[in-house]
Amino acid sequence: MKFNAPLLVSLLVCLAAPVLAQERMSDPLEAARLRYAAADYDGTIAALPSTDASGVEANRLRALSLLALGRVAEAEVAIERLVLAAPGWVPGDDLSPRVRVVVRGVRDRVLPDTARQAYDEGRRAYERHAYAGAIAHLERAITIAEALALEGQPGMEDLRILADGFLTLSRSLLPPPVVTPPVLASSSSPIVVPLAALVNAPAEAAESEVTAAVVSAADASPTFEARVIRQDLPPWRLGLGGPGAVFRGVIDVQIDAEGRVVASEMVVPVHPGYDPELMRAARDWRYEPARREGVPVPTRRRVEVALRSR
Hints:
Elements: H1 5-26, H2 28-37, H3 41-47, H4 56-68, H5 72-85, H6 97-127, H7 131-150, H8 156-173, E1 183-184, E2 191-192, E3 206-207, E4 214-217, E5 227-230, E6 246-255, E7 261-268, H9 275-282, E8 286-288, E9 290-292, E10 295-297, E11 299-308
Antiparallel strand pairs: 1-2, 3-4, 4-11, 5-8, 6-7, 6-11, 9-10
Helix pairs in contact: 2-3, 2-4, 3-4, 4-5, 5-6, 6-7, 6-8, 7-8
């Protein structure tokens, strides 16, 4: 008996097609894509997962379908979830100007405040020495601020710089991961060899008498830390940033055995218009030198500056 090979192949393809189609339709996201491509917007929404955290692509399809149906308020909820999960997402030129206007409105309403809130939470976590939490919040703030800065959102580049500075500090102060100690076998019972990890905890901060600058020692080795004699800050132009604005930064100064500042480093910028003046002022700061067993020694201090507009 002879077999017709082409006919057999065609038959197998025909038999397999419904199975393959069924498998594609069993994926809710793929089914939603097919229905959206067919302009079945109600079917697209019905095919998508109903949970709030249903993913970027699902919320994109839901938002676009709702906009096509004229359900703008519901679409804005989906767009908000979408831009919070993917701050860099913007609709392409293939979508209508009306869609782009709605998306832009949601982004402008939601993302700047989200970036500032993430930065504030990260800075507060840093001040509590909760460095792992600070890193998570600050990384989120930077991700959003970078996306908005590229779009020309005012203040976002400054926010990104501040968040990046505190992120660098948090990473440098994050304790090393706990290493499971090795176990050495013996004839009687296991012997656990402990591993010690020395972590320098930051010194207790004290308010400066001059401004809201926080001073803490960066070198724990002297018996007595350097004490402030003169630590004047440059005048702050209160109009910058508007009423209630707060700008924070960190500067490290190296102090010699005579209490003079011999070097300084801007660890976290305060403000682009203020940082050069602060660096110049730091050259004239004077301290009672740190001492080790009564002998003056060089040391370092870290100064956090907080400037508030009124």
